[in-house]
Write a structure and sequence with these properties.
four-stranded mixed beta sheet, 7 helices, alpha+beta, Cytidine Deaminase, domain 2, about 150 residues
């Protein structure tokens, strides 16, 4: 799937979500095709699987990916709670063949960038406190108490 995507001008990544040996969803990376920087293979396959299974939790599923996940996809993987993630290629193995550098980070340094306090990151992050904003979360809690 990833090689087919590359042959069609896409990026070299793919993801499969499976449960009990059955493929629930699959997707190549679709960033180039959709002009959507969040359309990574993992995100797209997770979306499809969750819609198919009508849940936001992929417990009971295994997720297979071509390469170790980027920070965005790692977050999505944690959020959807699969039983395990199996990846085939490490960033170190593919980095001499593929670069995906962005304005504020390079894949090789992103994890250290992400761990910095907000005010030390390359992407300007400005905290503007507003006392009223917490009310949204208070209301959510009221409506969702068990």
């Amino acid at each position: 799937m990833a090689l087919e995507s590359v042959e069609k001008g896409g990026r070299p990544f793919a993801c499969i979500v499976a449960r009990d040996g059955e493929i629930i969803a699959e997707s190549p990376n679709l960033v180039e095709q959709t002009q959507d920087p969040t359309a990574h293979a993992e995100v797209m396959a997770i979306r499809k699987a969750c819609m198919t299974l009508k849940t936001e939790h992929l417990t009971g599923c295994d997720i297979y990916i071509l390469a170790s996940p980027c920070p965005m996809c790692l977050g999505a993987l944690y959020y959807c709670s699969p039983d395990r993630v199996i990846y085939i290629t490490t960033r170190e193995e593919y980095s001499s063949y593929y670069k995906d550098n962005r304005k504020y980070f390079e894949l090789e340094t992103f994890y250290s960038e992400y761990g910095k306090p907000a005010e030390e990151r390359r992407l300007p992050m400005i905290h503007k406190p507003n006392g009223e904003s917490i009310n949204v979360y208070k209301r959510w809690e009221q409506l969702n108490r068990a």
